[in-house]
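User: Fold this one for me? It's 8-oxo-dGTP diphosphatase.
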Amino acid sequence: MAAPILVVAAALVDDLTHPTRLLAARRTLPAALAGRWEFPGGKVDDGETPVAALHRELREELGVTAELGRELPGPDDESSWPLTDRYRMRLWLARITAGTPAPLEDHDELRWLPVTDLHSVPWLDGDVPIVRALEAALHAPAR
Ligand SMILES: Nc1nc2c([nH]c(=O)n2[C@H]2C[C@H](O)[C@@H](COP(=O)(O)OP(=O)(O)OP(=O)(O)O)O2)c(=O)[nH]1
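Assistant: Here's what I get for 8-oxo-dGTP diphosphatase.
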């Protein structure tokens, strides 16, 4: 079986040191995933670094520029998280430095969730354990 494709995404928070809110995005495509919530991001293009891909995706999908904070390390290769047989994902904390996020591509709604209530929206199945780990990390002091 082919190696899973790398997706990069951002856990956009209001403050990298003392986060109180996280930006979740509701997918519009494909039909099987429409209406479920996720971290903004997307696939890394050939010849692109993961960090460059993430900045590009945030610009394209939300119209924002962001500074990246710490990565939430997952259990798989390169600290990635398993999503499905086809995809794995790396996730960074991030804070918007320019622009107001809007659902420009792939999403029809954005919502700032209190970090104390991240399960109030139906996340994509693969994101559920990641959201749980993120919750724990956001309550732990930054390293
Ligand atoms: N962006 C993102 N994708 C996720 C998350 N969780 C999850 O299972 N996925 C899946 C959904 C998709 O099948 C795949 C990522 O594809 P994508 O559609 O976001 O990537 P992309 O923006 O590069 O898409 P495209 O250019 O091919 O349309 O990973 C998540 O939190 N964020």
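One thing worth pointing out: The pocket of 8-OXO-2'-deoxyguanosine-5'-triphosphate is lined by residues 7, 9, 33, 38-39, 41-43, 83, 87, 89, 106, 124, 126-127 (CB under 6 Å).
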